[in-house]
Each structure stands twice: as structure tokens, then as C-alpha cells.
Amino acid sequence: MKMRNKIIVLLAIMGIVLFGIVQCVIIPKNNQKNKQYIAQQQNPTTHDVNSILKYKNKYMGNFSNMANLFHTLPLNNIPMSFELFPDKLTAQVNYKDTIENINDNKVNKALIYNSTVAFALIDNLEAINYNFTGIKYKVLRSDVKKWYGEDISDLLKEDIWKSKVQDKLNDNEYVNNCAKAILKKQ
Amino acid sequence: MNSLKNHVDSMFSKYKENKQIKELKYEVLSNLEAKVEDLTANGMEYSEAITKAKESINSIDYLIDGNRKVYINKYKLEYMQIVLLYSIIAWIITILVNIIWPGIILNMVFLICSIVIGIKYLLLNTKEDYQYFQCKSFINIELAFKIRKMAWTIWLLFIVVYTLFITAIQFGSNIWFSRPVSITGPYQFAEVAIRYFVPFISIMIPLFFNVAPKLISRYEVGEDNENEE
Fold first, then answer.
1. Which of A41, B68, B112, B118 has the fewest CB atoms within 10 Å around its CB?
2. Residue A133 sits in the same domain as residue A171
3. Residue B100, CB half-sphere, CA atoms under 13 Å: how many?
4. Same structural domain, A78 and A167
């Protein structure tokens, strides 16, 4: 019993020290990292492409897959709803806000990025309609494919994705040109 | 004779009526009646004979199968020490689990348990009353074995059901939509592994019941324990 008492005291001291380290150092550090990660997911140039590979699907008709995918992409902080038109192989995202409120440049970057992601992951998706309050855009797979000059799903490798999709979005001229080429106002 | 029957019934009142108890009651009552008849045959007053017979047997605990007389407070003290040890171990495990899995409530439950049991154990352990630790009482070892078996069975059942439940939550949609399971890195793997691991911390409960039969044997009143501290 005496030996067990010593073990209890030793474990209690160990527990108190460990508790202090975990609660005061490790967990706050992890929380900070998580906050930073969530903030990065709002930005197309820092978005983690590996986190969305699980949404790869042959068919655009899988509603939950599409909805979950768009909820992990930039602009996911804007209230939105979805509609699918399987006969036209088209998805529609209805953002409940105006472009002026969000910021013009931010919207262009996000729509270019989100469209590229959706066409790269969903094999039979041919078009996406983005409806904002007061304005509508249509993005076609053929236009995006033409812009990148290669099959969109080939871009999904991490280094290629970074250089050909994400890094380019830092250049505002590139963003404007791309927006003109692929975002068709309705 | 009704008074004898009432006396016997009151002695057996803490035991559940079963075949063994019924037989024992019958046997004890017969013995007491025989004693009363014997005493009255020798010229004693009937009421006095009843009182004498009643006085001759005050406890029937030693007659029950599996009942062991133990130093009850020594038994409780060591039991509390073991529970405290398990509780601290569980607390330390949940501290580590907290790094990946936000289970602060579980962690706090074990912390509070450890503090409460720790204080109680400390108060008992510092008691220097010799008489207190010489206190004896009966504990049924067969019941302790039965409870131990039941605790392990329920725990195993809980683990099986919980594991199936976690698998359904975690991978159900992958199976349903024929989607490959994707664990992208060591952190994600640890997250999944911890979800499976956390319910295993409840092993503390069957372990708690596991020690009872061992401690009953250790603190049973007898030659070996007479001089124990």
C-alpha cells in the first residue's frame, strides 16, 4: 500500500504538470493554428487543395457532395443555397449577398478558383451558375479548359495546382483577364 | 412461536428470498423451536425460554454461502486507494487525448473524481484509531464475482456497440456511396484513432469491480490478517 501511495503522489504531480502544459501551451497554440487554417481557407491563394480531394466524384447529381464541397471553398462564409439541374449537367449556387458588399476582386478570384475546383473534381459537371443579389454569372467547363489549356483534372497535383491555379491569382491583371474569359454575365 | 418466526425473519431481512435462504430460515427456526421445547421441558418459563433462544443466535451472516467476514475499514481504505490510482491514470490519459480531441468534460470529470476520492482517502489514511481498522463486517464474495462478471460483460457490449457506431458515423457514407476512405495525414489518422480509443477509457469501471474479490480474500478475518496494519 505504501508503494502504491508513492505512485499516486508521483502520478498526481505528473498529471498537474502535464495538465498545465497541455491547457496553457499546447491547446492555445493548436487553436491559433486552427484559426489561421480556417482564415487561409477563405483565400483562394492559400486554400488547402488536399482537404477537398475527398469530394472527387464522377457525377454532379450527388447533392450532398456538391454542397459539402462548396462549404469548404472560399466564399463559404456567405449564406448560400444550391440547386442542381442534372439534365443540363449544371449546378447553381445562390449567394445571398451583393458583390459590392463582398468586394469585386475577392469575388472574381473566388469564382475562378471555385469553378476550377468544381470542374477538376466533378467529372460530368459542365456548367455552374453563380447567382448573387442583383447579378448572375455562368461558368462553362469548356471556357475554363480553354483558359488553362489542358484537362482541368490534371491540375489537381499539389505543385501544379499551386503554380498554375493559386499563385496566378495573386496577379490582379491575370484575375481580370480570366474573369473576362470565363465569367459570363447573364 | 410467532415471535421466533419474526426474529428469524428480521435476521434474514437484508437477504433476497431464494431457495438457500428459505432452507436456512426453516433450519434456524427449527433449531430455535427445539431449543425452546428443551428449555421448557427443563422447567423454564415459556417467555424466558423464547428470550434465551433468541439470544442464542444474533446473526446468521456466517451461514450464507460466500459470506466472508472482513476487516471492513481496511478493505474500504485499500479499495479507495486503488480507485484513486485508476482515476488519476484516467485523468492523465484524458489530458493527452485533449491535445487532439476536445474532450474537456471527460477530463474534468476524472479530475474532480480524483480530487474527491483523494481527499476522502487522505482523511481515512491519516486516521489512527486502532479500533476503527479492527471493525469487522460480512461481504459476499460470490456476489462480488457475479458483479465483476456482469461489469465486464456490459463493458464489452458497450465497446462493441460503440465501435460499430463510430464506424458507421465515420465511414458509413464511404461505404454507402462506394467512396474510398481518405485519411490525408498523421493528424487525421490520430483524430480517427482517438475516436475509437476514447470509449476504452471506460475500462476503469470493470477494473474497479475487478479488485473486489481479491481484496475480500486479502482482508478476510483470520490468522493471516490478525497482525496486519
1. B112
2. yes
3. 16
4. yes
Residues of B in contact with A53 (CB under 8 A): 182, 184
On whether both A59 and A151 belong to a single domain, the answer is yes
Q: How far does the CA of residue B73 sit from the closest CA of chain A (Å)?
A: 14
pLDDT in tens, B92-121: 999 988 887 776 788 889 999 999 999 999
Separation between Cα atoms, residue B84 and residue A126, nearest integer Å: 64
Whether B85 and A7 lie within 8 Å, measured CB to CB: yes
Distance between CA atoms of residues B207 and B213, nearest Å: 12
Residues A131 and A91 in one domain: yes
What residue in B sits closest to A11 (Cα-Cα)? B88
SS3 state of residue B226: coil
User: ipTM of this model?
Assistant: 0.70
Distance of CA A160 to the CA centre of its chain: 17
**Do A94 and A148 sit in the same domain of this protein?**
yes
Domain total in chain A: 2
The dihedrals phi and psi of A159, each to the nearest 5 degrees, come to -70, -40
Please check whether residue B96 touches A, CB under 8 A.
yes
Chain B environment of A57 (Cβ under 8 Å): 179
Residues A65 and A94 placed together within one structural domain of the fold:
yes
Note the Cα A46 to chain centre separation in Å: 9
pLDDT tens, position by position, A44-58? 999 998 888 888 888
> Are A91 and A114 part of one and the same domain?
yes
Residue range(s) defining the domain that contains residue A10: 1-40
Q: Does B95 contact A12 at a Cβ distance shorter than 8 Å?
A: no
Please, which residues 67-86 of chain A have a Cβ atom closer than 8 Å to chain B? none
Residue A3 touches partner B, C-beta closer than 8 Å: no
Task: Report the Cα–Cα distance between both ends of chain B, in Å, rounded.
Answer: 46
A169-173, long-range: CB within 8 Å, 24+ apart, which pairs?
A169/A44, A169/A45, A169/A109, A169/A112, A169/A113, A170/A45, A172/A105
Per-residue confidence band for A62, with pLDDT thresholds at 50, 70 and 90: confident
For chain B, domain boundaries: 2-63, 67-225
Instruction: Using a CB–CB cutoff of 8 Å, tell me whether B91 touches chain A.
Output: yes
